[in-house]
Amino acid sequence: MARNIGADGRTVYRAVITQTNRVGQQWTEREGPYSKLGAARARVTFWRNYWARHDGTAEGHVEQAHTVWAPVGEAADPIAAARAAGLREAADAIEAQLRAEGYTLDCVCESCTPCLLRDYPTMFRARADAIHPATEEQEQ
C-alpha cells in the first residue's frame, strides 16, 4: 500500500516497543513511520494490551524524526531541519525585537530601522522553506 508519510519534510514518528513473551524471550521492534504522534502511541498501547492478554509484557516509547529528501545518488543534508529552524527563529527574533522597541512594521519610508529590517524575516523564512519545508502544528 502506497502511503504519503513525511513526503513533505514534516516530522514523522515511530513506536519503539520492547516485548517479552511468556517464556522470557525479549526483543525490540520499531513500527512506523507515522505522520501523527497519536498513531505511534497507539501502537505502543496495542502491544501492551496484546501481551497483557497473552502472558507477556511490552513497554515502549515514541521517537520522532525529520525527513530530509534528496535524489538517489546524491547526499542528503542531515542538518537541513536544524538550519531551517535557526532561520525561522532568527526571523521571529527580529520581529519580536522590533515590536518590543515600539516599532510598527507598516512604515514605508525605506530609511528607518523597521523599514531596513522588516524584509529580513520574510527572506529568512523563504530561505528556511527552501532548505527544509515548514512543519505544520503537530498533534500532541
Please give the alpha-carbon distance between the first and last residues: 26 Å
Average pLDDT over all residues = 83
Helix fraction by DSSP (H/I, runs of at least 4): 40-55%
Rg value: 22 Å
Helix/strand class: alpha+beta
Contiguous helical run count: 4
Q: Report low-confidence residues grouped into runs of 5 or more.
A: none
What is the topology, as strand order, of the major beta sheet?
Answer: 2-1-3
Give a verbal description of the structure.
This protein is an alpha+beta fold and 140 residues long. The chain has two domains: 56 residues; 52 residues. It contains four helices and three strands, in the order E-E-H-E-H-H-H. Strands 2-1-3 form a three-stranded antiparallel sheet, with helices on one face. Strand 1 and strand 2 form a beta hairpin. Helix 2 runs antiparallel to helix 4. The longest helix has 21 residues. The radius of gyration is 22 Å and the shape is elongated. The two termini are 26 Å apart. The mean pLDDT is 83.
